[in-house]
Structures are given as structure tokens and as C-alpha cells.
Known about the structure:
Strand order of the largest sheet: 2-3-4-1-5
Helix content: 25-40%
Radius of gyration: 23 Å
Amino acid sequence: MADRGAEPEQLAFGFDHPESLARDDFLRGPSNAAALDAVDRWPDWPARALVLAGPDGAGKTHLAAIWAARAGARIVSAAALDAAGVPTALATGALVIEDAGPGLDEVALFHLLNLAREAGAFLLLTTRTPPAAWPLRLPDLRSRLRALPVLSLAAPDDALLRAVLVKLFADRQLAVDDGLLTYLERRIERSFTAARAVVARLDDEGLRRQRPVTRALAVELLGNGEPDEDDDPEPEGGAAADADRRPAGPDRPTGA
């Protein structure tokens, strides 16, 4: 029989938090400053094509979206690129090719580069590795790609990662304290993707468990609960208990 004394678990109603890819929502830091400056300088580019190279979660897709909105560019996946679709892809005079790299259709890309040059179209390619490192079969394509300017993005530094975490929590109407931010900085992968994932998980679990989003909750979810020597302990009934400032309601508690 069910335990009649047990409290029913609170149902958490999930709400979508679509990520904004607007220019104002892109946070600048040493790891992405050169790439952001280049996007902002368009159409004053030294060449009519640009390559953004960097690891997943470094901000390439966000930058590509900013440029596409400004240039009226279409966005296509490199995996979907084929020779027959090249003229249509360039119809607006500007094109983003996302996630380019080894294994793409070399003939289609070579045709695209040639047609773009003839039409005076602009191109932006995003990739994990610079084209010079791709094992290409076509010598002419290899030469053409190596002539393109490449700007590299790196993983965010401590200051940028913290700023991203603060913004992601704020987007969900959550104000968090330094103890939680420091804990997350030291335990998640250094990428925007990881920051988005951990913020979403903490928010969802806080709602499901009817608890505020604090360092204590993060320790329970992420494990490795032993605090670092220089981590400040979370005060009882202090800032951590008040870290979640979302207005009280049926789905969010005001205390631990």
C-alpha cells in the first residue's frame, strides 16, 4: 500500500527558454574578441569570405547567426551541401556554412567558392578545425581554402564563463550567489554549451524538488561534494538560502 503519510511530489511544469542569438546577447571576452570584431566590421572585410574555427560551445553558431541576420544570409549545414543546390544557397548573396570539415562534398564546396567569387557573394564558414588541417582530395580546393582568412575562438576564460552563467540564470529569473558560481566554474566543461546545460538542469531540478537553486543543490546533482579548500562554505540561512530570487509561486519555494 502507498504510504499515506508521505507528501506528494510536486509536479514541475517545464517552460521553454529559447536561447537568444541576438548581437546584444553575445558576451565579449578575450577568447572571442577578434571574431566578434570581424563580424561587426562586415561588410568591410579584406576578403569576401571568412572562417571561424574553434571547439564546440565557443560561440561560432551565435556569431554566425549575428552575421546572417545582418547580411541577410542563408544558413546551411555543410553536411547538406551539394553541387545542385549551390546556386539556390547563394541566392541572397550571403551564405553561412555551418560545421564544415573533413568529409564534406569537396566538389560542391569548390563549386560554391567559385560561384561566390564570380557573383561577389559573401561567405562565412564555421568549423572545429582550420581548413589547413582538413585531409582534402582536391588540390585546387585545398589551395582556395588556405587562402581564406581564419579567426580562431577558444574556450571561455574564467571571467567570461562566469558572466555567461550569470546571464543564463538571469534569463530564467534566478539570481545566484558567488558560492554557486565558483563551484560551477570549477566543475563544468569550459564551454557555453556546458553552461547552458548545467543552468537548465539546476533550474529543472529546483522546480521538481521545490528547492531554491543553490550550491548545495549543485553539489547533490554534480557530485564531487567535497568543497575545495578555498571554497567558502555555504552559510545556513544566509545568502545561499536567498540565492533564488524568483517570485514565490506554486512552482517555486522561497526557502530550502
